[in-house]
Amino acid sequence: MRAWATTPKSEARIFFSGLLFLTQIPCDAVAGCDHHPGYLVLAFAYFPAIGAAIGWAGAAAYDAAMAVLGGAPAVAAAAATVATLGVTMCLHEDGLADAADATLGGWTRPEVLAIMKDSRVGTFGCVALALATVAKVALLATLGPSVWVLGAGAGAGPALVAAHALARATAPPLVATCAYIVDEEDAKGDFYAWFGRSRHLLSGARVGVATASAVAIAGAAVGPRSAAAAAVAAAVVAGAGRWWGLRVLGGVAGDLLGGTIVVAELAVYAAVVAVTAEGGGVRAAWAPLARLLVTVGGMVALAAASRRRGGGIQPAGLVDGPRAAAR
């Protein structure tokens, strides 16, 4: 299986396997690729490059809408969002909805896994999707008209390219460093089991290619300063996703990867806005940020106290039982 990566022909199939998985572009007839788990695992190295292409499609829609309407950033942002969701068919948003439902609706690990595999979308998932969409449109509208300069771009268009590349760079390290959770009762259990057994193909070199290419793409799109802030934001989201996956699931799953990508994309837009906005940035907003950290810290402390008394989501590996029995 490792020999697949040794020839240009095999690398082409690997790349198009990733493109076929992440988008709705019918490229299987061109490259002879399919959803073979082994090729898909190897394709993680190309996820940022494919993400940049998805972001480029969104940027094209944004710029076209701005030109036709003579400058309506909110409508252009909506057009860009429709374009990227159309290309991906809401692949990652589906993961966000399932992860939100599972996180806020499940008390135990079996309940979390059962909710994640349920095809229906619950209240928490609907709210998460609505908030993510509204936030994306608002941030893109705030970024404003695109300025296309290699290594010094600005506005929504370059940010779309950078965000979609960096967001998809969160998946390779998560898959490489965490066990892949497989639900044997899932209709796609055999596929995901094969996927999990193929994780060894995702070498450190391929994770490095994904990370380096994402940072390079972001730097070329929005410049080094914005790219650095965006990369840090995406890394923080990836770290949070890894922590949640290991603590609650004992590893990662497809819905967790998809939800992490959506949140990382939003974090990149926010980071670029913070760096480029006049009078903005972390230094200018230290007081509100301090209040936010205190609030979040209080909520985390309360949740930790609740878990010590037997409430909350039980970490992976603990025996699930009635909450009352733990008290």
From TrEMBL:
<feature type="transmembrane region" description="Helical">
    <location>
        <begin position="39"/>
        <end position="62"/>
    </location>
</feature>
<keyword id="KW-0808">Transferase</keyword>
<comment type="pathway">
    <text>Cofactor biosynthesis; adenosylcobalamin biosynthesis; adenosylcobalamin from cob(II)yrinate a,c-diamide: step 7/7.</text>
</comment>
<dbReference type="GO" id="GO:0051073">
    <property type="term" value="F:adenosylcobinamide-GDP ribazoletransferase activity"/>
</dbReference>
<keyword id="KW-0472">Membrane</keyword>
<keyword id="KW-0812">Transmembrane</keyword>
<feature type="transmembrane region" description="Helical">
    <location>
        <begin position="283"/>
        <end position="305"/>
    </location>
</feature>
<comment type="function">
    <text>Joins adenosylcobinamide-GDP and alpha-ribazole to generate adenosylcobalamin (Ado-cobalamin). Also synthesizes adenosylcobalamin 5'-phosphate from adenosylcobinamide-GDP and alpha-ribazole 5'-phosphate.</text>
</comment>
<keyword id="KW-1133">Transmembrane helix</keyword>
<dbReference type="InterPro" id="IPR003805">
    <property type="entry name" value="CobS"/>
</dbReference>
<comment type="similarity">
    <text>Belongs to the CobS family.</text>
</comment>
<feature type="transmembrane region" description="Helical">
    <location>
        <begin position="227"/>
        <end position="244"/>
    </location>
</feature>
<dbReference type="Pfam" id="PF02654">
    <property type="entry name" value="CobS"/>
</dbReference>
<feature type="transmembrane region" description="Helical">
    <location>
        <begin position="121"/>
        <end position="141"/>
    </location>
</feature>
<keyword id="KW-0169">Cobalamin biosynthesis</keyword>
<feature type="transmembrane region" description="Helical">
    <location>
        <begin position="201"/>
        <end position="221"/>
    </location>
</feature>
<feature type="transmembrane region" description="Helical">
    <location>
        <begin position="147"/>
        <end position="167"/>
    </location>
</feature>
<dbReference type="GO" id="GO:0005886">
    <property type="term" value="C:plasma membrane"/>
</dbReference>
<keyword id="KW-0460">Magnesium</keyword>
<keyword id="KW-1003">Cell membrane</keyword>
<feature type="transmembrane region" description="Helical">
    <location>
        <begin position="256"/>
        <end position="277"/>
    </location>
</feature>
<protein>
    <recommendedName>
        <fullName>Adenosylcobinamide-GDP ribazoletransferase</fullName>
        <ecNumber>2.7.8.26</ecNumber>
    </recommendedName>
</protein>
<dbReference type="GO" id="GO:0008818">
    <property type="term" value="F:cobalamin 5'-phosphate synthase activity"/>
</dbReference>
